Amino acid sequence: MPRSPARVLALSLIAVTALAACGLKPEVKDQLAQGNLNGAGALGGTTGGDSTGTGTTGTSSGTTGTSGTSGTSGTSGTSGSSGTSGTTGTSGTSGTSGTSGTSGVPGAPQPGAGTTTGIDFKNKVIHIALHGPLTGAGVPQSSFTSGTPKYWKNHTLANGFKIDAVAIDDKYNAADALRACNAAADDKFLIVGGAGTDQISACAQSPKLRRLHVPYLSAGVTEAGLGNISTYFASSLTYKQQAPLLVRLAKDRGYFGKKWAVVITGTPNFKDAREAMVSELQRNGAKGKSGAFNAGNDVYLTDKAPSNCSTLATQIRGGGYEVIYFLGQPSFFAQCVGSIGNIPINPVYTGPGPSFGISSVITLACAANSSYQGFYLHPSPSWNQRAKYGAPADLTDDIELGIWGAMQQLNEAFDLVKGPLSRESFTAALAQATLRGGVFSPVSYAGGSRFGGSAAYANAADCSQRLSNTVGVYRR
Predict the structure, then answer these.
(1) Shared-domain flag, residues 192 and 177
(2) How many CB atoms lie within 10 A of CB 5?
(3) Phi and psi dihedrals of 252, rounded to 5?
(4) I want to staple 472 with a disulfide (CB 3.0 to 4.6 A). Which of 5, 146, 326, 458 is the partner?
């Protein structure tokens, strides 16, 4: 679909800020350390119903001493107390316990039933937040602000409540993401991580979010430090989980038997991704620049935000690499695609998602090298195949499609809650749930894992149209 230069620039910058992956800065680690990372006890009231019917006390009838009437209860009504004895008669019989009252619509919020911050009972609205890089690239990040409303304008929860979703600015860095998430915890029911590995990691590990029991969901990225956080849920495969699927994709597309290089940001957040991919390459007998793939010779660590790819490009060309696993900053990636070029070798680029499987990043790469070849996994399919997965036609790009899919998944999660809805009951229900998905693949947290993704789409670059095409679905 043709796009104006301004639209291309906007989408490119969206991708640069939204999908770049980086490690936590020291000051962010310090901020995270200033709280109890084990969380605190449950806040608010119990998770029972809000209307506690009390049984009417059985009384005796005075002179005749008949038994008192039975007290009835509401949702969690207490039993009627024993009838007191009459003045001259026999004591009244004990009031019978009230029958249970109805709990209302399954999943409906009730005041006092757990932590219900962010719920407007009067207007039947639940307020949530999506954080992403709304600033930091010099242009508005419209896809983050428009993606959630496009889903919720046509959807209501089974309990009759509507969702009001707002985008909050994490300014494309972990420190500001942490501040934004902490502020949202005061008046939003839950938070969704829109992009950025270091931003997601910082918010997921926030002591405040854990202390206030704020459910936090994000696309699967790193697993480092997130597996034991009870309020965190990855809604798609992590980088580590995608490693064997990338090898399978390479074999299916006919480029596995070539020389491989791994180019990846050298941060703790990417250690699990790097080690998983290296292990899979070695286990499957991949080749490096000289013989079998060797982590010491064929892995290239980059800075968080490199400015020049010339040295790396020389190393890649000198090694004769034909396939490059690349995970890092999209603008640097595009620079490297141009610097490495296509002579004498036009390498195939591959890696996990969410990263370079969307059209805005492909636009950058194709502008740098019109012969660019890329096969990347991604949580959602290509934008031009949205109708196949039930997404509406008015979604304008891949980022909106991904957000729409995440909201579709979230809608299903809300509707699984039985009994009064609270932060605690939502987390408890999701922790045992299997979600069918739609645009996103099914996910299951049963068994205690917070990394329940099951599959990813393989999106191939098409430089003739400057977009991605889904060429397969790869399941664990």
Answers:
(1) yes
(2) 7
(3) -65, -35
(4) 458
Query: Which tokens belong to 361?
Result: 């990043």
Taking Cα atoms as reference points, which of 80, 468, 373, 20 lies closest to residue 221?
Answer: 20
Sign of CA dihedral 277, 278, 283, 287: positive
Distance CA 336, CA 322 (A): 14
Compute the distance between CA of residue 222 and CA of residue 200 in angstroms, rounded to an integer: 9
Q: Inter-axis angle of helices 142-152 and 398-415, to 10 degrees?
A: 40
Instruction: Say which DSSP state 270 is in.
Output: G
Q: For CA atoms 383, 388, 394, 399, give the dihedral sign.
A: negative
How many residues are given for the chain? 476
| Domain count across the chain | 2
Would residue 18 be called left, alpha or beta, if left means φ above 0 and alpha means ψ between -120 and 50 degrees?
Answer: alpha
Q: Please list the pLDDT of the chain residue by residue as tens digits (476 residues).
A: 444 434 433 333 334 334 444 445 444 544 554 443 333 333 333 333 333 333 333 333 333 333 433 434 334 333 333 334 334 444 444 444 433 333 445 577 877 789 999 999 999 999 999 998 777 543 446 777 788 889 999 999 999 999 999 999 888 789 999 999 999 999 999 999 977 888 999 999 999 999 999 999 999 999 999 999 999 999 999 999 999 999 999 999 999 999 999 999 998 999 999 999 999 999 999 999 999 999 999 999 999 878 899 999 999 999 999 999 999 988 899 999 999 999 999 999 999 988 788 888 899 999 999 999 999 999 999 999 999 888 999 998 888 999 999 999 999 999 999 999 999 999 999 999 999 989 999 999 998 999 999 999 999 999 999 999 999 999 99
* CB-neighbour burial class of residue 45 (10 A; exposed 0-12, middle 13-18, buried 19+): middle
Q: Hey, which residues does 218 pair with through a beta bridge?
A: 193, 234
Count CB neighbours of 432 within 10 A: 12
In a domain? residue 83: no
**330/211 same-domain check:** no
Co-location of 120 and 229 in the same domain: yes
CATH code for the domain in which residue 193 is found:
3.40.50.2300
